[in-house]
Amino acid sequence: MMKMKKILSGISEKKPVFYESREAFLKGLLESAAKLFAADRVSFYYHDEKNSLLRLMMRRAGGVSFEAEESVRPSPDSPAASALGSLKPVVFRNKAGHFLLVPFLIEIYSSSVSREAPLQGLIKLERSSGKRRFSPAEAGAAHEHLGDFMRSYYKAEFVGLNKKYAKNLGAITELTEIFANSLRVRESFKHILTGIQTYFGFDRVRLYLIDEKAEKLKGELSSDIRGQIKSIAYEEIPLEAGAHRFADIVLGHSSGVFMERYKECVLYMPLVVQGVTIGLLIVDNLLSQQKIEQGELAMLKSFAGQIGLALDNVRLFDKVEELSLFDELTKLPLRRYFNQRFQEEFYRAERFKQPLAMIWVDVDYFKEVNDTYGHQIGDRVLKEIGRVILSNLRKIDFPCRYGGDEILILLPQATGEEAGKLGRRLAAEIREIKIPVAFSKTRELSVSVSLGISTFPADAASMEALLEKADDALYWVKSHGRGGIALAGEVEKLKAEEKKNTIKE
Asked: Cα separation of 337 and 429, whole Å?
């Protein structure tokens, strides 16, 4: 028992380590688990739900961590299935030795405040049969420690993308000016196609990119000899042999009769980055029937790698930017992303004379929660509030973690009355949140929020005034007992009444 207290103490006191890649992160995770829990072997599996498989990513044995390939299909009554289903650690033994399975589930988020598929799997700790079994206390400690460790996976993924982006950027500097410029503009795909069209003079240039998750080849843009750029996003081709000649090219299958017939005036160029095909560039002279000269083919093919790098880097840049715009804890956009959207929505409201509402949310007594129960409980509170907010908003609404425990919600095309209804619904659902606190008398913690609401054009004529009015309304609620909702227009009347009553007294 004393040994377990030491383990738990060491976990809580150890400072977090910053890992520069996903591989380094996994090695650190396995090394930490092996050391803290005296495991002979530790293995990291992710759950391939589509194929009902546990796929091994990395293993540590004999003091060395290494990548390995192994796929396991757990039976419904197996310890692995039990751990995955319950998300609780499972201890068992067999002839091979003693085992502890620790499940994990982390959520990865992207733009549009939308949820992607979570990453789920198991960390398996092993001891030989001659050693002691894993105790329930060790199982609980391992679940807590590895759970905390896995929450940093998001950061390792972010850093890995940044490093890959920087590496690609170094290669891009050697390209011609046209491809280098493509990284410095928002509509970079258009610039790449326009550059190819202008330089080579083809009748048409088309770009398709692979969507790995959807297993499709998706159209992006098409440029014609007149310089017109059109979206071909409506074109989606399944990445299956025989589905379409474009899919066959990407998959490396037979070119087909059509390609043989028009091979002198059509070029299909797969775009490959580090051995992985990311898309397909097609240039043709089908309209003019001009033969594509060998010199042009050679020159364009020489650019294929650079074009692929440019395109891949643009996508990586977008992904890195995407990750940096969202709060990892609440999954809400951050302040700088909100400021950008706020400007866009306010301009739209002014131009089309539409209402725009703002809700300023503040968690009541949040500092006291942190001081009394600790920052882990405070984080749980913010996470649950973020979940409630995201589940109640329309697609056009835009929330933001503005700072600390303050959250702003922008409601395009919403009146004060509509904002008030949403605010009351949010406040009611947040009051229903129960955070388990094992060491408190009530065994759980309830929270409430104060909300201030302002609207354009009723309460304010500028962005600054809209924020100020919402903040004023929030301050009024907090200074009158908290846990309530106030609209800026109503606050002005209430202030006037209070002033009048004070004069009378």
From this structure: 26
Cα distance between residue 440 and residue 374, in whole Å: 12
Cα separation, 391 vs 291, in Å, equals 57
Angle, helices 136-150 vs 22-36, to 10°: value is 160
Reading phi first (left if > 0) and then psi (alpha if -120 to 50, else beta), residue 197 is in alpha
Q: CB 262: neighbour CB atoms within 10 A?
A: 14
Contacts of 71 by beta carbon, 8 Å cutoff, 6+ apart: 48, 53, 54, 55, 56
Write out pLDDT tens, residues 358-417.
Answer: 999 999 999 999 988 888 898 999 999 999 999 999 888 999 998 889 999 999 999 999
Nearest 10 degrees: CA dihedral of 67, 73, 75, 80? Answer: 20
Which tokens hold the place of 104?
Answer: 């994990």
Where do the domains of the chain lie, and which CATH numbers do they carry? 2-151 (3.30.450.40), 175-323 (3.30.450.40), 335-504 (3.30.70.270)
Is the pTM of the predicted complex or chain greater than 0.85?
A: no
Query: What percentage of the chain has pLDDT greater than the value 70?
Result: 80
Q: What is the pLDDT of residues 439-481, one digit of tens each?
A: 777 788 999 999 999 999 999 999 999 999 999 999 999 998 8
Which string of b and e fits 227-238 if b means at least 16 CB within 10 Å? eebeeeeebebe
